[in-house]
Specification:
Elements: H1 2-20, E1 24-26, E2 37-40, E3 42-44, E4 48-57, E5 63-66, E6 70-81, E7 94-97, E8 101-103, E9 106-110, E10 121-127, E11 131-133, E12 137-139, E13 146-149, E14 156-160, E15 169-178, E16 181-190, E17 194-202, E18 209-215, E19 224-230, E20 236-246, E21 251-253, E22 257-261, E23 268-269, E24 276-283, E25 286-290, E26 295-299, E27 303-307, E28 314-320, E29 325-331
Parallel strand pairs: 1-4, 2-4, 3-5, 4-6, 5-7, 6-8, 6-9, 7-10, 8-11, 9-12
Antiparallel strand pairs: 10-14, 13-14, 15-16, 16-19, 17-18, 17-20, 20-21, 20-22, 23-24, 24-27, 25-26, 25-28, 28-29
């Protein structure tokens, strides 16, 4: 009898352990009389999906950390309190996401007696991966304030006043092959307190060096176009990023762009692909990196076919035979 009870307890514990490893997905649809409210200072150690209900960090104010991906549904609300300028988690509510962030629903700004001035800004969400979507409704925002979804300040969702000294608003940064050169161009929509730009180059997406320095306009609300060229790119993968410097020494980086110059007659197919890719002849090694330079797949044994089914849809760089051949791989 004791053995039967022990086995039953173990089985129940195993079920709870399995349940605890399932990504969090909250919805009040199943019990419409209950409002889901995720609040307090806490860490959610998984992917977090809030279909409806409310997420309200901290206790006047605070921070909720999500170690996976974060998704807000169209019926969900992020209640964000602003208190002072001491930073995210202390001066204002913040959601800190390690992975990708998908936004929808409502952003509700709560001032609770605080009166921010027109020169202030608050990073209400930080994310380490990608950002998609926007809030469909914003309530409580101070008059004339705006919201930036990672364009002006990469990796952050920021609300800011009309007189805040945000970095230059870079609309785009592009790197395109032009014969044996690479043309690097960018466009700004406005510039405040801006000093100069530095175009940086790398062959490993880790160590960058300055390719060229370009003087900024300084103060402008008009659209301006900039362009420089890398006349001697390296064989293989060339990584580029844009560094924008302010007069007060603050700076920000653009997303990394890459251009590939092939050197050997190796080919693979299909491209795009979803399950496997094949080579026109056996290769000794294959290394696949994401667009941030992180290695996501590696093979060091001779083969003509490799399995890529574990890769998430997106654009990757494939390195064959330790740099003999580099190309872009699109995974569907």
């Amino acid at each position: 009898m004791k053995k039967s009870i022990t086995l039953t307890i173990i089985a129940i514990a195993a079920i709870f352990m399995f349940w605890d490893n399932i990504p969090r997905e909250y919805s009040k649809n199943e019990k419409s009389t209950i409002d889901i409210v995720i609040s307090g200072n806490k860490t959610i150690p998984k992917d977090f999906v809030l279909n409806d209900g409310m997420i309200s960090p901290g206790h006047s104010p605070g921070k909720i950390t999500v170690t996976g991906d974060f998704t807000m549904g169209s019926s969900a609300t992020y209640k964000c309190e602003l208190k002072d300028l001491t930073g995210g988690g202390t001066g204002h509510d913040q959601i800190d996401v390690s992975g990708n962030t998908t936004l929808a629903g409502t952003l509700n700004i709560v001032l609770d007696g605080y009166s921010p001035n027109s020169a202030e800004m608050f990073d209400i969400i930080k994310y380490g991966g990608t950002l998609s979507g926007t809030f469909s409704t914003i309530t409580g925002m101070p008059a004339a304030w705006q919201i930036d979804y990672g364009v002006i300040t990469p990796g952050k969702v920021t609300i800011y006043g009309p007189n805040s000294t945000l970095p230059v608003e870079v609309l785009n940064f592009n790197a395109q092959k032009d014969g044996r050169q690479v043309v690097l161009s960018w466009q700004t929509a406005s510039e405040q307190n801006s000093d100069y730009f530095m175009v940086e180059h790398s062959t490993d997406a880790k160590t960058f060096s300055t390719l060229e320095r370009v003087k900024a306009r300084g103060e402008s609300n008009a659209i301006h176009n900039y362009k420089v060229s890398d006349k001697v790119p390296a064989k293989g993968i060339n990584y580029y990023r844009l560094k924008q410097m302010d007069l007060d020494g603050k700076y920000s980086y653009s997303k990394i762009k890459s251009v590939v110059f092939n050197t050997k007659g190796i080919a693979f197919y299909p491209n795009p692909a979803s399950q496997t890719i094949s080579f026109n002849k056996p290769v000794e090694s294959v290394s696949i990196h994401d667009m941030q330079g992180k290695e996501v797949l590696k093979s060091q044994s001779p083969k003509s076919v490799i399995d890529i089914s574990s890769l998430q849809p997106g654009i990757y760089i494939i390195d064959i035979n330790q740099g003999q051949y580099n190309s872009q791989l699109i995974v569907l």
